[in-house]
Amino acid sequence: MLSALLIRTVICVYFAMTLALFSCCASGADAAAGNSAPVARQGVLDLGAWDFRGNGAVDLNGEWEFYWKQLLVPDDFHRANAPNGKTFLALPAAWNGVRLNGQKLGGDGFATFRLRILPGPEKRELALHLDDLYSAYRLWSNGRLIVESGLVGKDVSAEVPSQSVRQPRLTIGDQPLELVLQISNHHYREGGIVSPIKLGTAEQLAAAQIRQWGVAMFCIGSLAVMGIYHIALFCFRRKNSAPLYFGIYCLLWMGYFLTSNSNGWVASLYFAKIPVQFLIRVDLICFVLSVPVIYSFLRTLYPGEFSHGLQQITWALAAIFAALGIAAPAMAFTSVIPAYYIFSIVLILYSLVMLFMAMRRKREGASFILLGFLALGLAGTNDMLHDLQLISSVYMFRTGMFAFILFQACALSIRFSQAFSTVEQLSGEREEHILALSRMDRLKDEFLANTSHELRTPLNGIIGLAESLSAGAAGQLSEQARASLEMISGSGRRLNNLVNDILDLSRLKNRDIQLHRKSVDLRSLTDTVLAVSKPLVHGRRLALVNDISRCMPLVDGDEDRLQQVLFNLVGNAIKFTGQGEVTVSAAAGNSEIEISVRDTGIGIPPDKLESIFNAFEQVDSSAARNHGGVGLGLGISRQLIELHGGRLWAEAHPGSGSIFRFTLPLAPSDAAPAAIDNRGHDELPLPVTAPTFSAALAALTPPSANAPRILAVDDDPVNLQVVKNQLGLEGMEVITAANGREALALIESGEIFHLILLDMMMPGMTGFELCRGLRKRYNSAELPVIMLTAKNRIADLTEGLEYGANDYLGKPFAREELLARVRAQLKVREAHETALENSRLCREMELRAQTEAELRLTQCRLTGMLNTVQEPIIAINESSEIAFCNRVFEESFCYGVDELLGQPFERLFGASTEVPQKWLNVLDKSGADLAGAGEILEMITSDGRRWSGRVIPAALELEDERLLVLMLGESQVVTPSLLWIEDLLQNRRRLQQMEETLNGLTPLVLERHPGFIEDLRLVDRSLERMSRELTPELPEQDQRRLIVDAMKLALELWSEATGTAKADLARLSGQWAVYVNLDGWERTQTLDRYLSIDTLPAKPRLKKVLCTGDFVLSSAHGDTPQRQ
Length: 1124
Description:
This protein is 49% helix and 16% strand. The chain is α+β, with helices and mostly antiparallel strands.
């Protein structure tokens, strides 16, 4: 952040230089005019002592007679009645702001000026120079009209504005010269004579005007050249927009100079009929747009210093003012321009501060740009203040503009010089890098060649020893051991073929392959290659066809290299063809034979027809490609064919197969065919067939039933065998899958796996895709995944973990590392299953506790009703659990309530006793009427005694729960208690029926059946009478005291039984609100009101009190005084 002192310093320097510039301008103007130049006084200018030849032209400055709102002609001043309203106005000046009769004049209006000139004794031929008279005027000299510009009018409709430089001639003798000037302005913000009217010889005035126009044309041409040059720079290098902004800035000021009055209206020289309003609009619009353009130029150079928000504000203001310039009347538009002048001056000051900051930060070229913009800003400020008539000066923007262009050119040249230096430096570094890369490339080739040679010795030992052991060199081996040895030898041959390809590539690159040419029979050679390639088919419905004629001429070539080329092409065709045929054919020409290898496989995209011949290039290089290989075979084949003097190319149609064609020269006609040497066939990449791998995978001893099940997914059978061997030795069950889709099918079929070992790169579906699909169904703890990858880059490992893998293992991996990682993930899964089991047990315990609480609540509700019955009674709920027993049952059968509640009802009956099913059916409302359904049953007491007697069932509904009530007794008749229980059930049904009926009594029903109202009144009277007779009358005060006492006893019993506070009772019972204050304490304001008669509500809610009592009784255990 730039300090406040630095900002104040820049501002002070700016204003000091501005004042100095203005002082110089004022002193220069005074010097040009001369201190002895005559000035008009009271409308009279004395030129008797003025020497036009020695002193030059004179400005007719001073006090002119001024007649506001009057258009007078010379005759009006020579009549007896002189014109009224004469005042004096010092010229040059606009009449804006002049006070006349107590009022300040505006720019809009018309007036007459008059000046009398006293000449010298000599007669002279002179001329006048008129410029910047707004907006139309007429001038008389001694009564003769000498010049007219536009059409003077009293309003805007009558006036025709015009602006151009006029130099009318006149003659001055020994008599006074009278000048009468009519002027009107209805189109510009300023009216009157803004620039001095000059009087001098015609030659003097014409020469001065030509000089002014010459300077203006030079400026216009220079700006045009600079603008086009910088725009061209931008076209060649579009990344840097600074030249574009600067070029546009130059072109805008070129348009300004063409139409500006300060340059003598240059445009009027070429376009005389252009309306003055158009010139004024173009002039001001060019100025308005130049402000955001120059700010954008500076911000492009130094974006860290100049504000982007201020740039947007600048463009917005410029767009508004430009729109006004196009659409608004000239008077309105020119009247608001002073506000834009003020904004521009503030923006100049801000830009100077930011440029100084950029210079302090050592930005490139900031010093030159600061100096240039300082000159431009000072000149622009001078011109704007001069236009506003705040200072008396001359226009200096042309000088400031050229200073800015000069410093910009210096900065540009320095930038170009640094760019050239950078280019030279980079070119030198590039050459050094090229040399270094060439050396490294040679070292790489040498390393590959040497390493490949060194690899062949251990590979030969690995393959030889594996094959000899498999043949029985160390005795008879098991089937599993023999299969593993075959896989070792097969893997060794694959690696040996890769080593051979790398060696061939290095030799071809260094031109180090010698061809042993001889005459070769193509058909025999093809038979050999197709026979060797048959194992690659792997049981697919794929035919290998040799379509070369037995009469085909011999070719001239190296038999081994041609066999290598054919094997690469045929093997490549087999690899990319699922079914169909691979055909080798040939056609003889004049001097060469064209051989074709055609397949019906997937084909090759047109854009890959050439790139597939590059080293390490493949048709599908993605991780999910279906075919292996490193992409060397085709490139080696092309180079080998080119060494023979032929060509190799591909033709293909994606989805319908491909054709590889190559040409070979014909052998001499007298040459005999050489015998095909089959000794090198063992070096060809003979595949290890799938049945061998399958047998090896199945040969391990089956694991135990409780062994962890591991799913290994890899497209390489060798890797699968390695994993199965190492994990199988630890007693784990390993199931294998050759690709992602096969593994997904196993999981979707219901197979349960404890862990998945997943290869990252597989055909069809990559390990990433399979892992992402698994994570949509299983989380990382339910089914751990370990990625197996030969790519150990951090990016690949990070990607695997992001897709949901738990861990990764790089190939080749050690047995100990594999076992450690697998065991760690199995422990994670085991911990997850334990956590799930604990969670399930916790839920069951919570459900059990809830059930017990509900049973206790049922016991409490039934206690009040059934404890008065003299026979033993138990109640069974819908879960076939004991929900209630009365005191008589407890005493008779020696059971406690806590011992029975929640227990299966079968516990009370002997093994030979079976409760009738129709009794139990009442619990699901499917049973028949239980009247007279009593039976003799046998029950067991707590101490093991057997009780035999009649058990009478009854159904009871308690709120939403249906209960089976069993009454035990010796009598064979229905007891009054049973009838009472049935009456309770009937009363409950009555209440339910009444509730349903009352809910259906809408106003419409009552309107249709007016008799229902009288029936309801009868019911009300009956209920009131029954309540009055059954319920003892208590005074209201006694009822309120009973409510408070009940709540206090409930709270005491709750605290004693549970040891918790009343806030817990309020929350758990669900009857009372609990509030938390700002200090964190819980408050039970509503419940507290029921603990005192003074705070008890006028209409207490009795149901809340009863529900609270039931809840406390169901939650409190034991026989306490409060409970009684």
